[in-house]
């Protein structure tokens, strides 16, 4: 990982409000594919595939082909990566995704969990060349709009960045994800890197934006902590 600096005992305080915080203050958060370094936002694949009546059937057929490969070789890294991608795409197709509400149905969430399982197995194979296209999709899978696992979203984003040319935009996105996940030290380091790589004229505004994201995230965490009942005493 780029910044393996998680504090021990950190509370995982995650709210859906974090998603809206990121949209409002992020100025290019990867979850929606905004920004020149990342293509394919959260809803891009859904619009592309769900417009075809037989999209789900085609995706499921392709997934079945990958499952046959995995039956023959459970360590087939390429098939695992492709399976993760297909499960993600199926999650957004047909009745699996409510486009009016902008959220996954129960079946869609089940597909996202299958994508997570395939991704974890893929990483366990220690692939020589990371499939960055799938890595960035997994950031979306783990977003608050998906499985709501911000720590794993940060991990996937770090893997993606490690295989890409250094970019202010990408490090800014990593900083935002880290702040949303409560990984403040990692967020600070990523923010510093983003500002250092930015054009000189853009640095002040970018720093203000990232500081604002951090502040709002900390406020949301404090509010969540204040409203969370204390555990009952044992014994």
Biggest sheet character: 2 strands, antiparallel
Q: Helical stretch count?
A: 10
The fraction of residues in strands falls at under 5%
Query: What topology, given as strand order, has the largest sheet?
Result: 1-2
Name the shape in a single word. globular
| Secondary-structure element pattern, one letter each | HHHHEEHHHHHH
Low-confidence stretches: 5-50
- Measured on Cα atoms, how large is the radius of gyration? 18 Å
Q: Could you give the count of β-strands?
A: 2
The N- to C-terminal Cα distance equals 41 Å
Q: Helicity, in percent?
A: 55-70%
Mean pLDDT: 81
Tally of separate domains: 2
Structural class: mainly alpha
If you had to describe this structure to a student in words, what would you say it looks like?
With 235 residues, this protein is mostly helical. The protein has two domains: 12-41 and 143-225, no CATH class; 43-132, no CATH class. 62% of the residues lie in helices and 2% in strands. The chain has ten helices and two strands, in the order H-H-H-H-E-E-H-H-H-H-H-H. The protein has a two-stranded antiparallel sheet. Helix 9 runs antiparallel to helix 10 (203-227). The longest helix is centred in the last third of the chain and has 25 residues, at 203-227. The radius of gyration is 18 Å and the shape is globular. Mean pLDDT is 81; it is low at 5-50. Keywords: Membrane, Transmembrane, Transmembrane helix. It comes from Svornostia abyssi. The chain crosses the membrane at residues 12-34.
